[in-house]
Amino acid sequence: MRCARTTGADVFVSAAGLHLRWAFVLKRLKQQPFVRKRSDEHRTGMLQSLAHAFLGLCLAFGVAACEAGSGADTDATPPDAAADTVLPTAVSLGNVLLLAAASHAGWAVLAHAPMNTSEAPGQLVWLNNAGKAVGAPQALAGRPTTLATDGEQAIACWDRGGAVTCQCHARGGQASRLTFEVAGSKPSLVFGNETYLLVYVGIDKQVRLQRVAAACEPVGETAVLHQAFLEQYGYQIPVISTMGGWLVAAGDPVHLHRLGPDFTALQAPVDLKMPPWFYGSLAAVDDDFMVYLAKPYGGQIFLVQGAKVTEGSEITAGGKQGADVLLATEGRHALAVWNSGGSLQQHEMGAVAATMFAAGDATTPKPLGMQMEDWSRYALVKIGDQQRLAARVEGELKLFNLHGFEPSHLGER
Fold it and tell me: How many whole angstroms separate alpha carbon 239 and alpha carbon 253?
């Protein structure tokens, strides 16, 4: 129901419908023994009271439905204006290929490109808290491999010819605001601590960290993580923001670096004793950190608490490059999603605790009831307060509503 577009004709039709329904109910009530036994005056009063109650209930349900439906009526609805909106099960974004995705402050932004070409540049699409595209797609000069947003603008980065190029777009704008470059490769970008952080591999093969201002330009000194990086691995360095700064998984073997907002080390790097291998992801709940690292034909999830490392769920999926596992948290609960031969799997890992990844964990991953194209990329984004999964299914890029961590609606398309 769309309240803002209700007309006089709509009101007339609704009133006529209520009148017909009450006429039917009245006829049936008059036939009931408990009504026939009453006097005419008492019977009339009783039926009038029932009529008022019936009409009141109908109007109450109509107003409630109208108020519930009005929140998703405008593309530009602010994220906090319809927090209780139930998102549709699936939203189609067309026959395009997902390149990267990010979300913040109730907004999500996706970078996608046309199918059947590896040369065409990408486009940015903004999604509001109802999962609807807002404004026209924004053209990019390249095909981003990483993307971040503060809800007002987005920065997309890619590497080409020994340089990392980043392009910035304001939400609702048509043209790029600015573009900047740094010498290096394999960029990863994240927003947090009121700034953007770009992590990349410099031409000296060292992992470098660079803050990027909202004005879309590098600011401050570049920090260096003194960890060698072997370029033959296709590893894109995972980085997330935390309450106390940043978390970066880099080096060979991979070390987990816990850094303050100014990149100072908050503790000694934690050795995970695995080489970097194509995929990796991070999640944090307070001071408990989850790390996923890929390996041929699968991968390993770790729980890191201080300097203590607990090996958790081992995942068997993917080919020689391993499985691309996405990690997310909701409260103190964790979730892993990955593609296994075209079938998306979900592993609800329970509350984050010291025993969360006990050896011999027998929790069985749950299929999400959908088949995606095995080779295509997928991503988790949070729109409003709900997790959504972007994946190519049935020849289209779609957004699926996860309803928190419950996959029950993913099969309904």
Answer: 16
Instruction: Find how far residue 140's CA is from the centre of its chain.
Output: 22
Residue listed under structure tokens 């927090």? 83
Which stretches within 31-162 are classed as H helix? 33-36, 40-70
Q: What is the pLDDT tens value at each position of the chain, 413 positions in all?
A: 334 333 333 333 333 333 334 444 444 445 555 445 444 545 555 545 544 444 444 434 443 433 333 333 334 444 433 333 344 567 888 999 999 999 999 999 999 999 988 889 999 999 998 888 899 999 999 999 999 999 999 999 999 889 999 999 999 876 676 889 999 999 999 999 999 999 999 998 899 999 999 888 999 999 998 777 766 567 899 999 998 899 999 998 999 999 999 999 999 999 999 999 999 999 998 888 999 999 999 999 999 998 999 877 788 888 899 999 999 887 777 788 888 887 777 666 654 433 333 333 434 566 666 677 767 899 999 887 788 889 998 889 998 876 544 433 332 32
Cβ neighbours for 225, distance < 8 A, ≥ 6 positions apart? 206, 207, 208, 209, 248, 250, 251, 257
Residue whose token pair is 């009530």: 29
Q: Indicate the pTM of the whole model.
A: 0.75
Cα separation, 279 vs 324, in Å, equals: 6
Residue 123, phi-psi category: left (phi > 0), alpha (psi -120 to 50), beta (remainder): beta
Residue matched to tokens 């050795």: 271
Distance, in Å, from the CA atom of 319 to the CA atom of 341, rounded to the nearest integer, reads 9
Is residue 345 a contact partner of residue 337, using CB atoms and an 8 Å limit? yes
Asked if 388 and 108 count as a contact pair (C-beta separation under 8 A), the reply is: yes
